[in-house]
Write a structure and sequence with these properties.
InterPro entries: RNA-binding_CRM, RNA-binding_domain, RNA-binding_YhbY, YhbY-like_sf. The protein is α+β, with helices and mostly antiparallel strands. It has a domain of about 80 residues: Translation Initiation Factor IF3 (2-Layer Sandwich), CATH 3.30.110. Helices cover about 45% and strands about 15% of the residues. It contains 5 helices and 4 strands; from the N terminus they run H-E-H-E-H-E-E-H-H. The protein has a 4-stranded mixed β-sheet, sandwiched between helices. Strand 3 and strand 4 form a beta hairpin. It starts with 5 loop residues before the first helix and ends in a 21-residue tail after the last helix.
Length: about 150
Amino acid sequence: MTELTPVQRRDLRARAHHLNPVVTIAGNGLTPAVVAEIERALQAHELIKVKVQGSEREQRETLMNELCETLAAAAVQHIGNILVVWRERREEEKSPTHAAHKPTAKASTAKSASAFATAARRAALAKANAESRRPPARSSAPRGRNPNSGNRGR
C-alpha cells in the first residue's frame, strides 16, 4: 500500500470532490471481477471513487485496506459509503510485434480531451475571424429598387 503525505492527500481529496463512483461493491464483496474492474479504472483515471453498499464502518475500513493492499494503491479518503483510492498509472509493456504493426500517429491527432478542446477552440476562432473579415451580406431588397435612393414618398 502506498503512503501519501498530508499535502498529497489534501490535493487528491480536492481533485476527487467532483468525481462520481466508477465501481460499486455490493453483497458479494471484493470478488476477482470487482478487483479487475477497479484495476482498469485506476489504470485509466489514477483517482477513483468506489461505492460500498450494505456494510458497517469497520467492514468498509477493512475492505479499503484489503483493496489498497491488493492493488498497491493508496487510500485517500473514506466518507460514508464512498472510498477514494489513488494509484499512479502503470506503464504498459508492449510486445515488439504490436509495436511493429502499429501505424504512426499524425501530428494533428489529438492526444487527450484537453488537446481536442484546444484544437476545436482554435478552429472556431479561425472561422469567426474569417467571417468577420468578409464584407457584409447584401440586403434582400428587390433589384432595381434601391431603398436608400431617396424616392420615398413620391
